[in-house]
Design a protein that fits this description.
Membrane topology (chain B): Multi-pass membrane protein
Helix content of chain B: 55-70%
Strand content of chain A: under 5%
Distance between the termini of chain A: 32 Å
Largest interface: A-B, 28 and 24 residues
Largest sheet of chain B: 5 strands, antiparallel
Subcellular location (chain B): Membrane
Structural class of chain A: mainly alpha
GO biological process, one term (chain B): vacuolar acidification
Number of helices of chain B: 25
Oligomer: heterodimer
Protein name (chain B): V-type proton ATPase subunit a
Shape of chain B: extended
Radius of gyration of chain A: 21 Å
Number of helices of chain A: 18
Order of helices and strands of chain A: HHHHHHHHHHHHHHHHHH
Keywords (chain B): Coiled coil, Hydrogen ion transport, Ion transport, Membrane, Transmembrane, Transmembrane helix, Transport
């Protein structure tokens, strides 16, 4: 199949690819960010954004703005874009697009379950959920007491059901369990998505496997770093790593036995794609790791647009937009709290 | 003509031929009168401001705060508009002038009104919410009451026949209740129940989740509510089901409560007691009517408020838009170092200088400024924008030209000729006076109702037709004219001016032949003799006529194009272009195709049988051969040889001299600059400024040469292909007349032949639709497009550069008409 997408891709995918590339052209550039960084207050940010694609979403907001409003409206734009594309998509692209939102679904499930555990109001929790990861009975999650109930009551109806096969226990939910559940789910999701992309073949498989492998590796590193010093055993830790990626399988063996951040670093530096990331950081530091990973991810996502006739552009666009919203949130927070010197700490420039 | 154009002289000024002379002006305006000045200039609408702060981001500019204020007000106005359209209140026509009101007042007023409206809305929402809740409650009471009473009936019926076998188990009517009753009363467990409403699309999932959560120890009954219910939480209409859930145990209850909450199902208390139920219903109904009156009163109050907003709405909206435009413009001005005045630069037509100065003075006086504004003209090398003063008649034509490219500053404007040639070429392809009249009627409707339609919002296509109404009128008038020449009226021959000049020699000659016809009268006075219609030789005759006519029209239009290039050369004082572009081009085109045109005319006049293809082809292939029977006039061979020679010579004349002369000119200028003695500095500066922008440009000989080569090849090949391209006039005109004759003969006459009124009516309907759909709409479009092409490509490529940019003045008329 590879090499022949150009013949048939445009029959179903041409319109949407054009749409998504148009959307991509609307992403904020470095010049925009530079201007945003100079803003004095949130109204300035609104004024600047009114000249971008976000304009129509923000124009009807009354003046004392809040960071949450900005983020909410920007997310709304992302969701509208996504819904438009989903409406227009045919198989197998619609399935591909559906896969993109499963990650948010997992996050939402975890958010609600954790929230209920800490006895928060369900309505309040639902407002915090990412709109892309919503499903019908999401609020019912609050009823469940343990994993099995969670599955039996609610999730069996959702696309996430198959991912639960590995984490069905009758233990009561607690923070640790939930975190393990999140990672198990994510592992299953990434593997499933990876398999699906392989099935699609062609440039989609090629590019997506690269992007997903990076995602899987990043999660593996994060799991390792976060589980250092917890009661998670090495075997359990290893079980949470996705079974693909650049680190699979030997890197996983090594990561599983790491006891501190410098050991992780030692493992990762053996792998050329990550050498650059880690070489930027000084020893014993892990705060900057997230940003370094994000930067690398953005670089890879931008590269996805270099090739035509594949679905990875949709994934890349959604991810880039999400990154952009994170950037906007950070900038708005910094501006709102008068911490403008810290703006550059976390903003990831794209173009 | 070009020189005289602006200054009167022998011929009247021709505004449309060249762009208005433009100038770069600098205005130095004191801070205090800046706002008023820009406002007056906006009323005037003759200055295009340059952005002097392009490197600053929008919120760093001087008036960012004011723009934010205007944005906020615009938001409030949008909010009002939204509320008004929801309430069905229409904004009133504008009363008074917006200049009389103060922006600060408007801001305060808008703020007050918004706060009031928001408060009223909140109150109304609250009331509406409780009203909706009560409505839902009432529904629950009714539906659940029905359910309970029916269950009760069947249960008592059940009890009466306790002995009978338990066949009634199949009965779906409330099996739980029935069991409960049949069991020994002492063992009865008290079942709890909840009632409420759940959105219909969620009802299935709701039931399923309830079942799963309680492991099936629950009994759910749902009844569909036929009418839509307004959801109290969202305030939107929704379809809902009333449900009753029976459960046992407190844990199940808490689970069910949670699930209800998660599904947005509103629960309402319900009593089993029939008496209590009736009491509740009356109580709820009473409160509903009470609330209804309160809500109505609230709505009335709100409507009055919206009405008062509606009175001033247009005024405020215009004011805010104007203010925003003014501040946007003010942001383009640069702040003087002393911060006491603003410096504006912009383009304006020369004729407007006085008016601008007057506006500046007026603004200075009106704003009580101590110092007046300074108006001065700057010298610049920048190319000014192009500005044609058009009216509603010429603007559509100018749009057609501008769609190809806006004329370079002061370049000859093809629009002048397009006004006539465009509709004419269209009509050549659309020659039918019947269709022309239909088109004319349609466009007259648009023109007569111009005022009314202009203020309305039309659809996309309608908008286009309306914009081009005068072009369409011209097109239809011309097609009536050509239709008369072609003698076409829905393809029916009409001896309009005189009876046909020919008649049958005897009774035996048939209609479909020209043989046997003799000339009995004078030649038909205007256009085509109707007797040609339907004869066997009609097509060969018309083809020959229309083909030759197309070539004549084409050659004359191309000549016109080349002559325009002469006007341009004269205007820009470039003798090189006259001698080595205009003259060789004229010679080349006319020695080949001009000659062909002459031959055509000679052939028409003399009635010669000469074969013009043959003449033209052998003029190239073997110019020395004898012409024989194809000779049209004496010494034709010699003339042809001379013409051929001229054509061949003119090609190198086009190609070679111009680049070399340009090179020489450049070198001379360069030398003059480098060795200029000091005292001549003034003059050289002067030369440089008047010499235009290419004074400093790098001179690349190879580039110029290649450019000239391309230009020459394009012209030589274009002379052939463009002439051939004009044959589309013939082709389309043929297609049009054939199509209309097909519709006339194969539809209308065929239907007529059946002598059946039903078929006749069907035939007439088909004919009308085919005529309107195919001939009037599609053919008009295709002829329009072909005429457009002939103008854009064949005519304009002879002279038109079209690389200028349009004059876009800051004007309130444009701001007012543009939509938010």
């Amino acid at each position: 199949m590879y090499g022949f997408e150009a013949l048939t891709f445009n029959i179903h995918g041409g319109y949407l690819e054009a749409i998504v590339r148009g959307h991509r052209a609307g992403l904020l550039t470095t010049a925009d960010y530079n201007n945003l960084c100079q803003c004095e207050n949130l109204d300035d940010i609104k004024m600047h954004l009114s000249a971008t694609k976000y304009g129509s979403y923000l124009q009807n907001e009354p003046s004392p703005l809040h960071t949450t409003t900005i983020v909410e409206k920007c997310t709304l734009k992302l969701v509208d874009d996504y819904k438009h594309m989903l409406c227009q998509a045919t198989e197998p692209m619609s399935t591909f697009l559906e896969y993109i939102r499963y990650g948010h679904m997992i996050d939402n499930v975890v958010l609600i379950v954790t929230g209920t555990l800490h006895e928060r109001d369900v309505q309040e929790l639902i407002e915090k959920c990412h709109p892309l990861g919503m499903f019908d009975s999401i609020a019912t999650l609050a009823v469940a007491q343990n994993m099995r109930e969670l599955y039996r009551l609610v999730l069996v109806d959702t696309p996430l059901a198959p991912y639960f096969s590995e984490c069905l226990t009758s233990e009561d939910l607690d923070d640790m369990n939930i975190e393990i559940m999140r990672n198990t789910l994510y592992k299953a999701y990434l593997e499933d998505f990876y398999k699906f992309c392989q099935k699609l073949g062609g440039a989609t498989a090629e590019i997506m496997s690269d992007l997903l492998a990076f995602e899987a590796d990043r999660r593996a590193v994060n799991i390792t770093i976060n589980s250092i010093g917890t009661e998670l055993t090495r075997e359990d830790r290893k079980k949470l790593y996705s079974n693909f990626g650049f680190l699979y399988p030997y890197g996983h063996e090594e990561l599983a036995i790491c006891e501190d951040i410098d050991q992780v670093r030692g493992v990762m530096e053996k792998y050329p794609p990550y050498q650059a990331i880690f070489s930027k950081m000084s020893y014993g530091e892990s705060q900057m790791l997230d940003k370094a990973f994000y930067e690398e991810e953005v670089r890879r996502l931008c590269l996805a647009f270099e090739q035509q006739f594949h679905y990875a552009v949709f994934f890349a666009y959604m991810r880039l937009r999400e990154q952009e919203i994170r950037n906007l949130m950070w900038i708005s927070e910094c501006v709102a709290q008068n911490q403008k010197s810290r703006i550059h700490d976390s903003v990831v420039y794209m173009f | 003509m070009a020189e005289n154009g602006g200054g009167g002289g022998c011929c009247p000024p021709m505004d449309l031929m060249r762009s208005e002379p433009m100038q770069l002006v600098q205005l130095i305006v004191p801070m205090e009168s800046a706002h008023l000045t820009v406002s007056y200039l906006g009323d005037l609408g003759l200055v295009q401001f340059k952005d002097l702060n392009s490197e600053k981001s929008p919120f760093q500019r001087t008036y960012a705060a004011q723009i934010k204020r205007c944005g906020e007000m615009a938001r409030k106005i949008r909010f009002f508009k939204d509320q008004m359209s929801k309430a069905g209140v229409l904004p009133k026509e504008m009363l008074g002038k917006e200049n009389d009101i103060d922006l600060d007042d408007v801001e305060v007023k808008l703020g007050e009104l918004e706060a009031e409206l928001v408060e009223i809305n909140a109150n109304n929402d609250k009331l509406q919410r409780s009203y909706n809740e009560l409505m839902e409650y009432k529904l629950v009471l009714e539906k659940a009451g029905e359910f309970f009473s029916s269950a009760h009936r069947s249960a008592t019926a059940q009890q009466r026949e306790t002995e009978s076998p338990r066949a009634s188990e199949d009965l779906l009517e409330s099996p739980l209740l029935q069991e409960e009753k049949s069991i020994d009363a002492s063992k009865q467990v008290k079942l709890g129940f909840l009632t409420g409403l759940v959105p219909r699309e969620k009802s299935m999932v709701f039931e399923r989740i309830l079942f799963r959560a309680t492991r099936g120890n629950v009994y759910v009954r749902q009844t569909v509510v036929e009418e839509t219910v307004i959801d109290p939480n969202s305030g939107e209409k929704a379809e809902k089901n009333v449900f009753v859930v029976f459960y046992s145990g407190e844990r199940a209850k808490s689970k069910i409560l949670k699930i209800c909450e998660a599904f947005g199902a509103n629960r309402y208390p319900f009593s089993e007691d029939l008496r209590k139920q009736a009491q509740m219903i009356t109580e709820v109904s009473g409160r509903l009517t009470e609330l209804k009156t309160t809500i109505d009163a609230g709505l009335g109050h709100r409507n009055i408020l919206l009405q008062t907003i509606g009175d001033k709405f247009e005024l405020w909206s215009l004011k805010v838009r104007k203010e925003k435009a003014i501040y946007h413009t003010l942001n383009m001005l640069s702040l003087d170092v002393t911060k006491k005045c603003l410096v504006a630069e912009g383009w304006s037509p020369v004729f407007a200088s006085k008016e601008i100065q007057k506006a500046l003075e007026r603004a200075a006086v009106d704003s009580n400024s101590q110092v007046g504004s300074i108006f001065q003209i700057l010298r610049t090398k920048e190319l000014p924008p192009t500005y044609f003063r058009t009216n509603k008649f010429t603007s559509a034509i100018q749009e057609i030209v501008d769609a190809y490219g806006v004329a370079k500053y002061q370049e000859a404007n093809p629009g002048v000729f397009t006004i006539v040639t465009f509709p004419f070429l269209f009509a050549v392809m659309f020659g039918d006076w019947g269709h022309g009249i239909c088109l004319l009627l349609a466009t007259m409707y648009l023109i007569v109702r111009e005022k009314k339609l202009a203020s309305q919002k039309l659809g996309d296509i309608m908008e286009m037709a309306f914009g081009g109404r005068y072009v369409i009128m011209m097109m239809s008038l011309f097609s009536i004219y050509t239709g008369l020449i072609y003698n076409e009226f829905f393809s029916i021959p009409y001896p309009l001016f005189a009876p046909s000049a020919y008649d049958c020699r005897d009774a035996s000659c048939s209609e479909a032949t020209t043989i046997g016809l003799i000339k009995v009268r004078d030649t038909y006075p205007f256009g085509l003799d109707p007797v040609w219609h339907g004869t066997r030789s009609e097509l060969p005759f018309l083809n020959s006529l229309k083909m030759k006519m197309s070539i004549l029209l084409g050659v004359s239009q191309m000549n016109l194009g080349i002559i325009m290039s002469y006007f341009n050369a004269r205007f820009f004082k470039s003798s090189v272009n006259v001698w080595f572009q205009f003259i060789p081009q004229m010679i080349f085109l006319n020695s080949l195709f001009g000659y062909l045109s002459v031959l055509i005319i000679i052939k028409w006049c003399t009635g010669s049988q000469a074969d013009l293809y043959h003449v033209m082809i052998y003029m190239f292939l073997s110019p020395t051969d004898e012409l024989g029977e194809n000779q049209l006039f004496p010494h034709q061979k010699t003339v042809q040889l001379v013409l051929l020679f001229l054509a061949l010579v003119s090609v190198p004349c086009m190609l070679l001299p111009k680049p070399f002369i340009l090179k020489k000119q450049h070198e001379a200028r360069h030398q003059g600059q480098s060795y200029a003695p000091l005292e001549e500095t003034d003059e050289s500066l002067h030369v440089e400024t008047s010499g235009g922008s290419h004074g400093h440009e790098e001179f690349e000989f190879s580039e110029i040469f290649v450019h000239q080569l391309i230009h020459t090849i394009e012209f030589v090949l274009g002379a052939v292909s463009n002439t051939a391209s004009y044959l589309r006039l013939w082709a389309l005109s043929l297609a049009h007349s054939e199509l209309s004759s097909v519709f006339y003969e194969k539809v209308l006459l065929l239907a007529w032949g059946y002598n059946n009124w039903l078929i006749l009516i069907v035939g007439i309907i088909v004919f009308v639709f085919a005529t309107v759909g195919v001939l009037l709409v599609m053919e008009t479009l295709s002829a329009f497009l072909h005429a457009l092409r002939l103008h854009w490509v064949e005519f304009q490529n002879k002279f038109y550069e079209g690389d200028g940019y349009k004059f876009a003045p800051f004007s309130f008329i444009l701001t007012a008409s543009e939509d938010e």
